[in-house]
Amino acid sequence: MLSQLNKPLIMGILTITPDSFSDGGKYSDLKAALNHVELMISEGADIF
């Protein structure tokens, strides 16, 4: 757990609603959502 904010944190945002305007529901099923979270982690996201 992060107890000190000694560096900026990168936030990954995952919208999982099927009518999302930003991704068109691309991550509405669990497997797609988890794959995208793993991608965001690999790209440096700290929080979601």
Order of helices and strands: H
> Whole-number average pLDDT?
85
Strand content: under 5%
Q: Count the strands?
A: 0
The termini sit apart by 14 Å
Helix content: 25-40%
Q: What report would you give on this structure?
A:
The mean pLDDT is 85. The chain has one helix at residues 30-42. The protein is built from 1 helix and no strands. The two termini are 14 Å apart. It is elongated and about 35 Å long. 27% of the residues lie in helices and 0% in strands. It has one domain. It is mostly helical and 48 residues long.
Comma- or semicolon-separated keywords:
mainly alpha; single chain
Could you give the topology of this structure?
Layout: H1 30-42
Task: Provide a compact summary of the structure.
The chain has 48 residues and is mainly α.
